[in-house]
């Protein structure tokens, strides 16, 4: 198939399937299998996440409020940054040996829509980073805090209002991005669907499967948290695992287009 010609399924709204929480361990198992199969190609993307985190920790060491906003922004732009991992899983699914080169250019067949979606995620990240600074400024009037100040404040409940407001606002941004992107980028990659349809399909998938999607979002946060807790080194494994598992989540949530064609 010529990549310049979108598949027929790109013009159809995908069929969303209902799943149970029991499907999620299967996604993680399949994601781990893809991680092992992808080898250095998968770890390359994990290394990029880890290096980005380390660089930001150095550059913004004296601006912790901005650093906190940008690092937690991993959760916001992660769906786009993991696009190459989705492609590696797709290569593996098709029986090919996963190769890094093609995955780096996987966005090209659907550049306008993937680019538009990436721009939306970038805007959300910038708004969140600004909101993060504002929240810090409101609660730390004596000047922006150090990392130690924030940890002490959270652990000792010195300013419970700060923790409640910060995590509430951050949680809103994270849930919004998760809801519009949980299957959107894999769908645009796989079927060259337009950005609006992909985002709506993602919202419908969350609406039809609220408990499994909430559980999946929690697991993603925990895995990213492990990466942060290990000074970003753990992201070398956890981010590829999340990316590969998300591809299998997409496969579970979106009915196979061949099956859909057979029913027509």
Structure description:
With about 260 residues, the chain is mainly alpha-helical. It has one domain. Helix 4 runs parallel beside helix 9, helix 11 crosses helix 12 and helix 12 runs antiparallel to helix 13. It is globular and about 60 Å long.
Notable characteristics:
264 residues, globular, mainly alpha, single chain
Q: Helices, strands, pairings?
A:
Elements: H1 24-38, H2 40-59, H3 64-72, H4 74-81, H5 83-93, H6 100-104, H7 111-139, H8 147-155, H9 160-181, H10 184-191, H11 195-208, H12 210-229, H13 235-253, H14 257-263
Helix pairs in contact: 1-2, 1-13, 2-13, 3-7, 4-9, 5-10, 5-13, 7-9, 10-11, 11-12, 12-13
Would you summarize the structure shown here?
The protein is mostly helical.
Oligomeric organization of the protein chains: single chain
The Cα radius of gyration reads: 19 Å
| Helicity, as a percent range | over 70%
| Major β-sheet profile | none
Integer average pLDDT = 85
The low-confidence runs, each spanning 5 or more residues with pLDDT under 50, are 260-264
């Amino acid at each position: 198939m010529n990549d310049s010609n979108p598949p027929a399924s790109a013009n159809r709204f995908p069929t969303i399937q209902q799943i149970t929480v029991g499907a999620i361990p299967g996604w993680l198992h399949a994601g781990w299998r893809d991680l092992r199969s992808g080898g250095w190609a998968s770890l390359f993307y994990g290394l990029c996440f880890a290096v980005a985190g380390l660089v930001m920790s150095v550059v913004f060491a004296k601006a912790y409020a901005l650093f906190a906003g940008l690092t937690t922004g991993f959760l916001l732009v992660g769906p786009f940054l993991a696009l190459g991992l989705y492609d590696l899983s797709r290569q593996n699914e098709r029986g090919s040996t996963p190769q890094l080169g093609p995955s780096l250019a996987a966005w090209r067949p659907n550049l306008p829509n993937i680019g538009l979606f990436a721009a939306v995620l970038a805007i959300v990240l910038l708004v969140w980073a600004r909101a993060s600074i504002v929240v810090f400024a409101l609660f730390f009037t004596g000047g922006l805090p150090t990392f130690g100040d924030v940890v002490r404040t959270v652990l000792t409940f010195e300013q419970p209002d700060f923790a409640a407001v910060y995590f509430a606002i951050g949680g809103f941004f994270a849930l919004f991005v998760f809801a519009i992107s949980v299957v959107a980028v894999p769908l645009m990659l796989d079927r060259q669907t337009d950005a609006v349809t992909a985002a709506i399909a993602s919202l419908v998938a969350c609406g039809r499967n609220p408990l499994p999607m909430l559980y999946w979002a929690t697991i993603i946060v925990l895995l990213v948290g492990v990466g942060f807790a290990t000074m970003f080194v753990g992201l070398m494994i956890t981010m590829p695992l999340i990316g590969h598992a998300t591809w299998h989540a997409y496969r579970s949530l979106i009915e196979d287009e061949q099956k859909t064609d057979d029913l027509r």
